[in-house]
Amino acid sequence: MYNWAEHGPFGGHPFLDFINTVDDEGKTRSMNAIPDWAAVLEWAVATSVLAPGEAERLVHLSIGPAASDELRQLTDFREMAWVELRRMAADQPADQENLDAIGETIRWALAHSTLESRDGSLRWSPRREDLDLRLIRARLALALFELTLAPEIGRLRECGRCTGLFLDRGRGQGRRWCRMTTCGNRAKIERFRSKP
Known about the structure:
Elements: H1 4-7, H2 14-19, E1 22-23, E2 31-32, H3 37-46, H4 52-59, H5 65-89, H6 96-111, E3 113-118, E4 121-126, H7 128-131, H8 134-149, E5 156-158, E6 165-167, H9 180-194
Antiparallel strand pairs: 1-2, 3-4, 5-6
Helix pairs in contact: 3-4, 5-6, 6-8
């Protein structure tokens, strides 16, 4: 079982926390922290993408070919979005084919959602009865949609050591690491060891 309390969200936005469900040493994206539905549901509850009761209702659906296909689609969506958000953070040109696929997922989520008034603002909310296990992907697609419209998207950065993405909300916008406790400390140790 993954230690989400220790790993913790660091992206500054729910969709970036989803992007960051990969651990790596360096820039490899080598360890998928949500490799199966048990991990996905645990992560979704830990980050409030799902309420505990919603996750309990989805457990019985997370077996079989349809569940495997949805897990693949969820992972593919994460990786495609990571590629494009990483390019955006580095001021590199986007891949239009990726953007079209991401846009298709967002349009699909909107088609299964209702515009609601909550806490003095308007938000898109997926209709749970339409979606079963796809509810997580729909909520994440809507979170990405909201992120792309937010002014702070210009503060998007990639960790200098791993593939983590985050919103740099510091005054000087000089944050270099996803977390000081992991990549920041590792970078300091590497610098210290490389000194003659």
